[in-house]
Design a protein that fits this description.
Strand order of the largest sheet: 2-3-5-4-6-10
CATH class: Alpha Beta
Bound molecules: zinc ion
CATH architecture: 3-Layer(aba) Sandwich
Shape: globular
Helix content: 25-40%
Structural class: alpha/beta
Distance between the termini: 45 Å
Number of strands: 10
Length: 352
């Protein structure tokens, strides 16, 4: 992604507000969801994360191996898997890219979309892993899927939402090869947003014209896994969801579910979510995979810390900078967020 104050601010006029009810789960259900955390799966050397923590520059065989790993994960879960393959011109010639789109139940018309990019930055001078950028975010998404999958099955008493499902997008080609710019960055997101804009979708239960209309909100995770992260509230249209995240963090803290993470000064951080950031409602300041969707009217929740981690785009962005407690906390926060958004209850009331 790119820090830039130069993007214009005209995007906001076309953003529709999502209006829906959002039911908070009782504390007993929160505690149950938290039990799905398997620290081994979320550890940097663990079975889920380790295959992601490798160089995976777009167009390389290592990138394809990571792609196959992600695809296999979702095929094993029985989700619908789709590859959006294309070639594009880069400063180093034509390259092949492939976005991965996985959907829990593609027959449902509306989607909570969670996304991260799986490519890593090209760096000729040293091995760049991109643990925060964005191996750990990809792993957190895969973990949300594997921990909620049983509850999401059709006909499940846990999941009564008939028209809404969860979709995940693993973007390729987020990183610039040479210098961040309109034609050298977010290759995958640019391709997919344009493709979906020109798609035609009809559904008996929802009026919509294309696949972008199926996206109730695009939640983009980036640069996650280091301590002291502070997330600004970038968009008015999704501010209510930002405050839901603050509420989830508070409720999980009150249940002593979140692990303690110390700040650089040794104090316990109260919140990862900062509603008083100077970047409040200034989503245009940071370019990332969400931009081609934002400009086409999709609601965006951008989960990227500001300031960026100190290891951003340098050799320190590897497994050593990742804090296990932070990863576990983020995993349970976003797992709870997805469950509440989808009206998924691990302990449903039988009388309903
Ligand atoms: Zn990056």
């Amino acid at each position: 992604m790119k820090w830039s104050m130069l993007l214009n601010r005209l995007f906001f006029c076309c953003i529709p507000l999502i209006v829906q009810c959002y039911k908070e789960l009782p504390n007993e259900s929160l505690r149950h969801l938290a039990k799905f955390t398997d620290p081994e799966r979320l550890a940097v050397n663990g079975t889920l994360m380790k295959p992601l923590l490798v160089e995976r520059v777009s167009g390389t065989s290592a990138n394809i191996r990571v792609r196959e790993y992600i695809v296999q994960h979702f095929e094993d879960l029985g989700w619908h898997v789709e590859l959006d393959e294309f070639t594009d011109a880069t400063p180093f010639g034509e390259k092949q890219f492939a976005n991965i789109i996985v959907t829990q139940n593609p027959d449902k018309p509306s989607r909570l979309v969670l996304a991260a990019h799986y490519d890593s930055m090209y760096q000729p001078d040293f091995e760049f892993i991109g643990a925060t950028d964005s191996a750990i975010p990809c792993g957190i998404l895969m973990n949300i899927a594997e921990t909620l999958d049983d509850l999401l099955s059709d006909g499940s008493i846990h999941y009564r939402q008939k028209d809404k499902t969860v979709q995940m997008i693993f973007f390729d080609g987020e990183e610039a090869f040479q210098q961040w710019g309109p034609t050298d960055s977010i290759y995958g997101a640019r391709h997919l947003a344009e493709k979906w804009e020109s798609s035609i979708v009809t559904h008996p239960k929802k009026v919509m014209k294309n696949r972008l209309d199926q996206m109730e909100v695009l939640v983009l995770l980036d640069l996650l896994g280091t301590p002291n992260a502070q997330f600004p509230n970038f968009y008015r249209s999704t501010s209510w969801l930002f405050y839901k995240l603050i509420g989830i963090e508070n409720r999980l803290n009150n249940q002593s579910i979140l692990k303690t993470v110390s700040s650089k000064t040794g104090e316990r951080l109260i919140s990862m979510f900062n509603p008083n950031s100077f970047l409040t409602f200034m989503g245009e300041a940071i370019g990332d995979d969400h931009v081609p969707f934002l400009t086409r009217g999709v609601n965006i929740l951008h989960m990227i810390p500001h300031p960026f981690p100190s290891v951003w785009h340098n050799r320190g962005d590897n497994a050593d900078c990742i804090d296990q407690a932070v990863v576990e906390n983020l995993a349970v926060i976003f797992r709870t967020f997805a469950a509440e958004y989808l009206e998924l209850d691990p302990l449903p009331h039988n009388e309903l």
